[in-house]
Amino acid sequence: MINNIESLDKFISLIPIIKLSIPADLSIAICDLERFVAYFPGDTINLNINEGQPLHKEEPLYLAIQENRTLKSDVPAHFYGFEFTGTATPLHDQTGQVIGGIAVQIRRQSELKAIVEQISESLSQANEQINNISYGVSSLSDHSQELLIQSQQAGKDVENTTEVLSIINRVADQTNLLGLNAAIEAAHAGEKGRSFEVVAKEIRKFSRETVASTQNINKTMLQIKGITNQMANSIEKIAAIGQEQAASVQHTSTFIEEIKIMSQKLNEFANKL
């Protein structure tokens, strides 16, 4: 068996080779039945065990020797400032008698685990915020599309109004012509046509006022149409930008979700260390 050794001194001489052959940062302590006789700290794990330091009765290594069995335990970070897994194994001489023990400590990557968990939490929060932004951008895009449709409809309404004004203008022209003809006929009628001449003048006056009003209204409607067209162009650009932003946000959300999955896998790997 591997824990049947010729002597503690010869076994201690092999520890540097053992540490080099194991691809992990670990510390190794060797003891006899009463005290530590050698300690080999790791690069990142050092329990500050001194040669000649007595064994404490509550130490796993002492219990392993007394019970003649291997013990394994996870030591929390509040004992030494970092978390590690330790094994305590009794050592036997060639006759099977317990002559000491070996304790091996491997640091658990709790810092890595904490960092990964923090990254995962941050990614979850970021993804939640991006989802909210995505909803807002999508809603803005929808509203922009509605505004675009409404502005286009407003442009059509302005064109219809312009057509109506054109018809009114033609009617006014016809009315003016009718009033002119009536005035001519009233002049031919002499005294009998004077009252009718007054009516004809009023008709022509109303016709001219109608033409002037329709021209002003048409001018105003053309201005409204120009503004409406500008609004439609602006809204169309806003809608296009909103759609691009929504697509970008969706790509970002997908990318963050992939990173989150990788962090979860990294967390699982950290738990195995």
TrEMBL record:
This is Chemotaxis protein. PANTHER family: METHYL-ACCEPTING CHEMOTAXIS PROTEIN 3, PROTEIN ICFG. The lineage of its organism: Bacteria, Bacillati, Bacillota, Bacilli, Bacillales. One of its GO terms (cellular component) is plasma membrane. Belongs to the methyl-accepting chemotaxis (MCP) protein family. Residues 110-273 form the Methyl-accepting transducer domain. PROSITE patterns: CHEMOTAXIS_TRANSDUC_2. GO terms for biological process: chemotaxis; signal transduction. InterPro entries: Chemotax_Me-accpt_rcpt, MCP_chemotaxis, MCPsignal_dom. Pfam families: MCPsignal. GO terms for molecular function: transmembrane signaling receptor activity. Keywords: Chemotaxis, Transducer.
